[in-house]
């Protein structure tokens, strides 16, 4: 059995297994993840995080883990399925030059020293037009492009089976996981839906996904991204699939031009 993190002397180097699993969810062939790998190369394990056994804090030697700041957003996530259960690896965004990493064994008290793997999957390696990394089923994709500014494209991916959504940034090649509740709130504001039986039930998002157009989902992402920045944007972002405006909208545009 692996020793408890409470028994470790800090700071300490990452174990061989910890480093291999962390680097697996940070693929070196993708620019955005490669930067994280390079940062981690010189970091030590400073101690446990606020979530206890399974969470470690990486940082420069000689400093203490900062547990006072809010828990950073997830940057990379993957899972290893074994004969003992599933091991999840979560790498969070950098905060104050420290990185939180959670390596958790589900349905096991501690991760055994030797595990027999049956499958691995991670969102970090997903690309547009591929199936969902977890369930291998088709996802809905909303392709977006910038009109001016940074260039490149964004792809919002939604899996109704695993109830996950993420956005692929073609510039950094990073897949940013998006919390469903926050995204759904922005979608409800955009659609001006205020009925609490609908607006406060984020699980309805996946059940009723077909009711929302690419333009609706693009707008919800943009407003969410302004509040919780996942992708730094300059200029205007539009869905790639242009939607024919309604007769009333076209008529309003005519009056606008003539006024």
Q: Any chance you could write out the topology, listing elements then pairs?
A:
Layout: H1 16-24, H2 31-41, E1 44-48, E2 55-59, E3 74-82, E4 86-92, E5 99-105, E6 117-122, E7 140-146, E8 153-159, E9 164-169, E10 174-177, H3 180-191, H4 196-199, H5 204-207, H6 214-227, E11 237-239, H7 247-258
Antiparallel strand pairs: 1-2, 2-5, 3-4, 3-6, 4-5, 7-8, 7-11, 8-9, 9-10
Helix pairs in contact: 3-6
> How many distinct helices?
7
Structural class: alpha+beta
Low-confidence stretches: 1-7, 242-259
For the record, the count of structural domains works out to 2
Element pattern in H and E: HHEEEEEEEEEEHHHHEH
Neighbour order of strands in the largest sheet: 1-2-5-4-3-6
N-end to C-end Cα span: 76 Å
In percent, how much strand structure appears in the residues?
A: 25-35%
State the major sheet.
6 strands, antiparallel
3D shape: globular
Query: What does the average pLDDT come to?
Result: 86
Cα-based radius of gyration, to the nearest Å:
21 Å
Structure notes:
With 259 residues, this protein is α+β, with helices and mostly antiparallel strands. It has 2 domains: 5-124, no CATH class; 126-239, no CATH class. The chain is built from 7 helices and 11 strands. A hairpin with a 6-residue loop joins strand 4 and strand 5 (99-105). Helix 3 (180-191) packs across helix 6 (214-227). The chain is globular.
Features:
five-stranded antiparallel sheet, alpha+beta, disordered N terminus, 7 helices, 11 strands, 25% helix, 259 residues, disordered C terminus, 25% strand, 2 domains, six-stranded antiparallel sheet
């Amino acid at each position: 059995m692996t020793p408890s993190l409470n028994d470790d002397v800090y700071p300490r180097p990452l174990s061989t297994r910890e480093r291999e699993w962390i680097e697996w969810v940070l693929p070196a062939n993708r620019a955005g993840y490669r930067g994280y790998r390079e940062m981690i190369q010189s970091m030590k394990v400073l101690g446990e995080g606020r979530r206890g056994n399974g969470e470690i804090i990486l940082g420069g030697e000689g400093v203490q883990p900062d547990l006072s700041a809010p828990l950073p957003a997830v940057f990379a996530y993957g899972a290893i399925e074994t004969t003992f259960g599933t091991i999840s690896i979560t790498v969070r965004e950098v905060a104050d030059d420290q990185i939180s990493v959670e390596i958790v064994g589900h349905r096991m008290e501690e991760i055994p020293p030797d595990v027999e793997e049956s499958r691995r999957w991670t969102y970090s390696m997903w690309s547009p037009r591929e199936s969902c990394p977890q369930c291998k089923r088709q996802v809905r994709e909303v392709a977006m492009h910038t009109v001016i500014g940074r260039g490149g494209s964004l792809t919002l991916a939604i899996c109704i089976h695993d109830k996950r959504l993420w956005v692929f940034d073609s510039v950094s090649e990073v897949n940013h996981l998006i919390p469903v509740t926050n995204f759904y709130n922005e979608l409800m504001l955009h659609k001006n839906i205020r009925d609490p039986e609908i607006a406060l039930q984020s699980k309805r998002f996946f059940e009723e996904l077909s009711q929302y157009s690419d333009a609706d989902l693009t707008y919800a992402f943009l407003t969410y991204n302004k509040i919780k920045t996942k992708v730094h944007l300059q200029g205007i972002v539009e869905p790639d699939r242009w939607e024919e405006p309604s007769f009333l909208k076209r008529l309003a545009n005519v009056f606008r031009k003539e006024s």
